[in-house]
Design a protein that fits this description.
The protein has helices at residues 3-19, 103-116, 136-149, 160-164, 188-197, 217-230, 248-256; strands at 31-36, 41-42, 52-64, 67-72, 77-78, 85-93, 124-128, 153-159, 176-180, 209-213, 237-242. By secondary structure, it is α/β, with parallel strands linked by helices.
Length: 259
C-alpha cells in the first residue's frame, strides 16, 4: 500500500468514525421479562420479540401460625418452547406467625420452592419476598440454601428503599437483584420526592435490572427517564408486571418503555 493509499484509508476511517460515533457506545437492547401472575395465559397467540421472556408465578409459600404450606399455580399457561422462562416463587409470612425463623423453616421453604420451580425448564429462579427488618437473616438463609441445592441462576425482587437507603443486600453475591418501582407503599412519596430533588444523579444500587408495572405509567416515565436516558445507566433487564392476562395491546405498552 502506497503512502497515498494509506493516507486515503486513514482519512476515510476518520470520516466514518466522525459520522457514526454512536457505534463505539452501542449497547444492546435490554432483555424484557413479562411478569405473569396466576391467570390463564396463552403466549402462543402473541408475537414475542427475541428479547422477551416470561417470568411466571410458579407457586406461593404461606407461613402462618398454623403451619407452612405451598400453593402451586392454578391457571394454565402456554408458552412456546423458544421463549426463555423464569420461575417466580412468592413467600408470604403472616403477621400472626410468632415462631422462630430457624433452619428447619429455611429448609421447609427451600423444599417447597424447589418443588414448584420447574428447574428443568427455566433459565432463572426468582424469589419474591417483602422481608421485614427482623426477617432479613431468614431471607438470606433461604437464598443460601437455594444456591447450595440448585445450579440455576437466582434472582430476588427488592423494595426500592432497600436499594436506595439501605445496604443489607450488598453481600448477596452472584444474585440478580431487581428493584421494584411499583407498589412502594409508605416509601412511595419519599422515593418520588428523592428522584425529583436529585434528577441529575439519583443514588440507587442495582439499577441495571428493574421491575415496573403497567398500572403506574407516570412513575415508569419518571424513573426510566431519570435513570437511563438522563444519567446513562445501562439497563440489562426490564421486568414488567401486568395484573391481567397479556394481550397484544399490553405487550406493545411494555415494549414502548425501551424505545
Amino acid at each position: 500500500m502506497s503512502i497515498i493509499q494509506r493516507s486515503f484509508f486513514l482519512y476515510f476511517l476518520i470520516c466514518v468514525l466522525h459520522l457514526f460515533p454512536v457505534c463505539a457506545d452501542f449497547k444492546p437492547p435490554p432483555q424484557i421479562y413479562l411478569w405473569t401472575w396466576d391467570y390463564p395465559q396463552d403466549f402462543s397467540k402473541l408475537q414475542l420479540p427475541s428479547n422477551v421472556g416470561v417470568a411466571f408465578l410458579a407457586g406461593t409459600i404461606h407461613i402462618t401460625k398454623t403451619g407452612i404450606y405451598g400453593e402451586s399455580r392454578h391457571c394454565r399457561m402456554v408458552v412456546p418452547s423458544t421463549i426463555p422462562l423464569i420461575s417466580v416463587c412468592r413467600i408470604e409470612l403472616s403477621p400472626d406467625f410468632k415462631e422462630s425463623l430457624d433452619q428447619k423453616l429455611v429448609n421447609q421453604v427451600s423444599d417447597l420452592i424447589i418443588k414448584f420451580a420447574h428447574l428443568d425448564k427455566i433459565s432463572k429462579l426468582q424469589i419474591d419476598f417483602d422481608a421485614r427488618l427482623t426477617q432479613r437473616v431468614f431471607y438470606k438463609e433461604i437464598i443460601l440454601a437455594l444456591k447450595q441445592r440448585t445450579n440455576v441462576k437466582l434472582s430476588i425482587t427488592a423494595l426500592v428503599s432497600w436499594c436506595m437507603f439501605d445496604s443489607w443486600l450488598n453481600k448477596m453475591n452472584n444474585i440478580e437483584i431487581v428493584p421494584m418501582f411499583f407498589s412502594m407503599g409508605q416509601d412511595r412519596n419519599n422515593i418520588l420526592e428523592y428522584f425529583k430533588n436529585h434528577p441529575s444523579y439519583p443514588r440507587i444500587n442495582y439499577a441495571d435490572n428493574i421491575g415496573i408495572s403497567l398500572m403506574e405509567n407516570n412513575v415508569n416515565k419518571i424513573m426510566l427517564f431519570n435513570l437511563y436516558q438522563k444519567n446513562h445507566f445501562h439497563l440489562k433487564t426490564l421486568y414488567v408486571f401486568n395484573p391481567h392476562p397479556w394481550t397484544s395491546f399490553s405487550l406493545a405498552n411494555a415494549l414502548g418503555y425501551i424505545k
